């Protein structure tokens, strides 16, 4: 050992020689002795001292000293000299030299040297070399310890290889090696990175059952994982559990919680409280903690608050660093405030903070997103002038900007320039180019780039495959997209050779394919891939569940919806509020009202904002370091009123817009059961339901509802709410459809008394329409004449009103005035009123002229209602054969109303042949309506065709619907039917 000290003492730091590794190789060629494990010059107690002295020797680069040291140690027969040298090289960061030393000897170095070499390879991300060296070590007789397994699992974590990490973990348990807290934490981190929180929770439970106490980093890893899947409740439960076990959070723990609150929940108020509580635990916020909170406000778009925290940071004697400025500049760029971002960049330079490549890349990205590629290139040039060389991220950003702005050729030009400068394109670069070519439909070039990418040794990521699959799906090449997705055997696709290790689909890839298949209507294939996703160990995220739910709701697969819903509850994904909204809306649209309201009511308990319970929880923990778990019932009680469920009117209006009066009435009855008093229901909910009663088989409900409204009084109805113009307009529409003139007049008086309601054009049109359809044509015309500004709806309401009241000439006069005097172009509803007026007045030729004018002069395509008006016009004019031929030549499918109009006219004019033809058509369209047989029977009677009359009467008896009455009892409606006993 004295020789080692003597040699080091002779070193001269001013002397420069070749690298120490070369010197070692030179010395080893002069003296090489076989290893003798029994002899040890450097004992374990002096091992650290030997490493320190060797490091000094290596740093000196002394050729003579290195040779002397080698001779001294080899003459002393020290077999652990190689281990000392490997450890020294690894601690100095000379990994390649350490690797060369290891490969230069045939014997296995000491365990500490092996672990040091493996650890250095992991830290430098040389994963291929690590597995190669590890295999060689095993072949030399290396027996890994718990430290070795921890290093290997860390490599798997960096490679996102959860399967490999799990195999190593199980192998360690099989060999009776007890994992340490570090190993458990690494395993948890691997699973959390893939959002496999159920498995991560299982490892965490095994850890505690094995008697290994979690440390701060363990809790931080789990909290970060649950934050990624938006399970905020579990995050704060872990935080409270950490306090319960006496672990005081550090600045890293608080920063993790702030990140989760800002980025996942969006609860900046609680994030700010969390920041304030750092002082109560004696934790001094550092620049990173401030930057986390500032980043949260920037991501929320609240730049003013972010700037305020920057000033608070400066008042705390913590100078904003380049990361602080980069966060603020990025926040401004994300909002498109590029001029302010440039100004902040100038302030940054004035404060003595030098902009780095990230700063310029953020500015370039901002201009690229704005589509201002000229300015982006200008910033890149300024970057070069500042002696900051554009890196791969710079070029990748520019390439992505050109691709998104439909300039793929310019993007390829940047790619060529990048390669010429010696920069190696990465996965992001190739992915941006592939995405650009896919969006342009150039799939051949996209796959050529994929092949080039693979030949360069780069591994495509999920976004790369997502772009390719999305491009194939948009071209309609579904089978090719599925083939690419399932490519795991190296069979090749489109001339590209791929290996199974290169293509590992994740949640993003599955989501792209499932979404594409659902849009293409291939719901069963989408379901299969969804099941494969679960089978392969991937936990579907919120996006995949939402896509599948929307597809099943669209195709009315309610059993599949319920199965997905149950699966979401089991896996915890249902805790996200967005999923609840999709479920609530889907259940409503498909008539599952109870389930829809349950989703709305449970929305608050499943996605809880922790701001109301985090404060007392932390305060209790600070004072007593005691944690009392909160029960589910207590949570629901505390969070029930955080978010409000959808208003009843919104649901009712949705059903009305979908022309589904049955669901309106069912929903209304549900509201009546859930609320005991009339005043607890928004009064306009009655009007929504009343509007639905102007449908077939709903008149009884309409009378009942109208009586209920009358019973409670119009004044109470109007005084209990504060409706806006939209609500009042819908209420007037309900009155118009049901003929409730008195109620409509009361609403009109309410509008006059309420100064907050301004009668705009839309509301004025609703009033005219209500009075016209409810029989008060005089008031409607008075309102029409007093309206100074009229649109097509105003004119149409009045024209239809006159037509409904048989005032044909007034309606046609208004139509002529509308065209010639005011130059207002009529719409399809206007022509319905004109044709109705012609029909009531018997103006057949004028009606035909207007019908032709509608298509030839105004380009309006006739609808079923227009054809019905023309048939009625011809029938009223006695042109029955013309009406028949008109029906047969209609480009749309004729309905029962049209044929019944012809049948009624035939009955009036005694046209037996056409009546029989109309009756045959009606038997196919509406066989249960007995009125058609009655009309035909009356024609037979007028013609004295008694046998035919008896046959028609017998058909009436057979098809007549039995008498029926109904009564509502509790939550259901009971029906009583009169039938003839056999």
TrEMBL record:
Pfam family, one: PPR_2
GO biological process: mitochondrial RNA processing; RNA splicing
GO molecular function: mRNA binding
Matching InterPro entries: E_motif, PPR_rpt, TPR-like_helical_dom_sf
Keyword Repeat attributed: yes
Family annotation (Gene3D superfamilies): Tetratricopeptide repeat domain
PPR repeat copies, ranges: 110-144, 145-179, 180-214, 215-249, 250-285, 286-320, 321-355, 356-390, 391-425, 426-460, 461-495, 506-540, 791-821
Alphabetized UniProt keyword annotations: Repeat
Source organism superkingdom: Eukaryota
GO CC entries: mitochondrion
Listed PANTHER family: ATPASE EXPRESSION PROTEIN 3, OS08G0290000 PROTEIN
Stated family: Belongs to the PPR family. P subfamily.
Annotated protein name in UniProt: Pentatricopeptide repeat-containing protein
Lineage, uppermost ranks: Eukaryota, Viridiplantae, Streptophyta, Embryophyta, Tracheophyta
């Amino acid at each position: 050992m004295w020789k080692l000290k003597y040699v080091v003492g002779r070193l001269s730091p001013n002397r420069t020689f070749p690298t120490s590794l070369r010197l070692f190789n030179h010395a080893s060629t002069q003296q090489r002795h076989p290893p003798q494990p029994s002899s040890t010059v450097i004992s374990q107690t002096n091992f650290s001292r030997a490493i320190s002295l060797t490091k000094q020797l290596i740093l000196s680069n002394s050729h003579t000293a290195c040779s002397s040291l080698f001779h001294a140690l080899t003459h002393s027969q020290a077999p652990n000299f190689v281990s000392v040298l490997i450890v020294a090289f690894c601690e100095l960061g000379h990994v390649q030299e350490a690797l060369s030393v290891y490969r230069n000897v045939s014997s296995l170095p000491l365990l500490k040297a092996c672990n040091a070499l493996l650890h250095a390879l992991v830290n430098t991300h040389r994963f291929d070399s690590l597995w190669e060296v590890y295999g060689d070590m095993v072949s030399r007789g290396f027996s890994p310890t718990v430290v070795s397994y921890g290093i290997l699992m860390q490599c798997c974590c960096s490679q996102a290889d959860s399967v490999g990490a799990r195999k190593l973990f199980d192998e360690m348990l099989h060999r009776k090696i007890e994992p340490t807290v570090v190993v458990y934490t690494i395993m948890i981190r691997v699973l959390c990175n893939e959002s496999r929180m159920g498995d991560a929770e299982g490892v965490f439970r095994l850890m505690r059952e094995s008697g290994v106490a979690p440390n701060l980093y363990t809790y931080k890893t789990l909290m970060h994982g649950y934050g990624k899947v938006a399970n905020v409740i579990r995050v704060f439960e872990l935080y409270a559990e950490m306090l319960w076990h006496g672990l005081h959070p550090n600045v890293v723990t608080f920063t993790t919680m702030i990140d989760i609150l800002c980025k996942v929940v969006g609860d900046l108020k609680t994030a700010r409280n969390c920041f304030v509580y750092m002082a109560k635990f004696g934790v001094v916020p550092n620049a990173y903690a401030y930057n986390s909170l500032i980043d949260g406000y920037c991501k929320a778009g609240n730049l003013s608050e972010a700037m305020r925290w920057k000033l608070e940071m400066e008042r705390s004697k913590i100078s904003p660093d380049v990361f602080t400025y980069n966060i603020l500049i990025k926040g401004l760029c994300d909002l498109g405030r590029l001029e302010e971002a440039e100004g902040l960049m100038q302030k940054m330079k004035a404060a003595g903070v030098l902009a780095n490549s990230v700063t310029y890349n953020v500015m370039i990205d901002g201009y690229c997103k704005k589509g201002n590629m000229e300015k982006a290139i200008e910033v890149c040039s300024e970057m070069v002038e500042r002696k900051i060389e554009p890196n791969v991220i710079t070029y990748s950003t520019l390439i992505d900007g050109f691709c998104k702005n439909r300039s793929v050729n310019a993007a390829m030009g940047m790619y060529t320039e990048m390669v010429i400068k010696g920069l190696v394109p990465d996965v992001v670069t190739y992915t941006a180019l592939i995405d650009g070519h896919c969006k342009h439909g150039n799939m051949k070039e996209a796959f050529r780039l994929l092949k080039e990418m693979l030949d360069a040794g780069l591994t495509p990521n999920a976004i790369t495959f997502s772009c390719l699959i999305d491009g194939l799906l948009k071209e309609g090449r579904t089978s090719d997209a599925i083939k690419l997705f399932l490519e795991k055997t190296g069979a090749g696709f489109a001339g590209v050779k791929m290996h199974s290790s290169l293509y590992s689909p994740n949640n993003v890839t599955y989501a792209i394919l499932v979404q594409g298949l659902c849009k293409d209507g291939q719901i069963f294939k989408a379901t299969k891939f969804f099941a494969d996703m679960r089978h392969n160990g991937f936990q579907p995220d919120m996006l995949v569940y939402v896509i599948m739910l929307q597809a099943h709701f669209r195709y009315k697969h309610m059993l599949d919806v319920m199965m997905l819903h149950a699966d979401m509850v089991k896996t915890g994904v249902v805790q996200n509020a967005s999923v609840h909204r999709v479920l609530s809306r889907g259940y409503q649209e498909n008539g599952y009202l109870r389930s829809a309201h349950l989703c709305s009511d449970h929305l608050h308990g499943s996605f809880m904002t922790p701001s109301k319970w985090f404060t007392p929880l932390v305060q209790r923990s600070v004072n007593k370091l005691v944690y009392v778990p909160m029960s589910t019932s207590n949570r629901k009680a505390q969070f029930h009123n955080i978010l409000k469920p959808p208003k009843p009117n919104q649901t009712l209006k949705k059903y009305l817009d979908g022309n589904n009066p049955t669901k309106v009435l069912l929903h209304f009855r549900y509201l009546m059961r859930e609320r005991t008093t009339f005043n607890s229901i928004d009064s306009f909910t009655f009007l929504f339901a009343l509007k639905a009663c102007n449908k077939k088989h709903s008149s009884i409900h309409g009378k009942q509802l109208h009586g209920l409204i009358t019973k409670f009084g119009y004044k109470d109805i109007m005084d209990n709410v504060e409706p806006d113009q939209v609500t009042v307009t819908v209420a007037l529409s309900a009155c118009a459809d049901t003929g409730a003139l008195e109620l409509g007049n009361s609403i009109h008086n309410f509008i006059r008394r309420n100064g907050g309601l301004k009668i705009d054009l839309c509301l004025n049109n609703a009033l005219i329409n209500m009075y016209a359809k409810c029989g008060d044509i005089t008031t409607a015309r008075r309102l029409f004449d007093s309206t100074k500004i009229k649109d097509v709806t105003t004119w149409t309401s009045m024209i239809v009103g006159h037509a409904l009241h048989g005032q044909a000439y007034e309606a046609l006069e208004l139509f002529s005035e509308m065209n010639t005097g005011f130059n207002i172009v009529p719409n399809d509803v206007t022509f319905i009123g004109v044709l109705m007026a012609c029909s009531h007045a018997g103006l057949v030729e004028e009606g035909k002229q207007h019908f032709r004018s509608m298509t030839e002069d105004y380009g309006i395509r006739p609808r079923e209602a227009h054809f019905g008006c023309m048939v009625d016009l011809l029938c009223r004019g006695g042109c029955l054969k013309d009406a028949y031929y008109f029906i047969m030549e209609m480009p749309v499918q004729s309905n029962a109303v049209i044929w019944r109009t012809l049948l009624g006219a035939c009955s009036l004019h005694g046209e037996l042949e056409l009546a029989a033809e109309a009756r045959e058509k009606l038997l196919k369209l509406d066989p249960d309506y007995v009125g058609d047989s009655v009309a035909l029977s009356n024609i037979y009677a007028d013609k004295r065709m008694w046998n035919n009359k008896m046959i028609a009467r017998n058909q009436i008896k057979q098809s007549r619907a039995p008498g029926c009455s109904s009564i509502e009892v509790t939550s259901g409606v009971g029906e009583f039917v009169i039938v003839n006993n056999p």
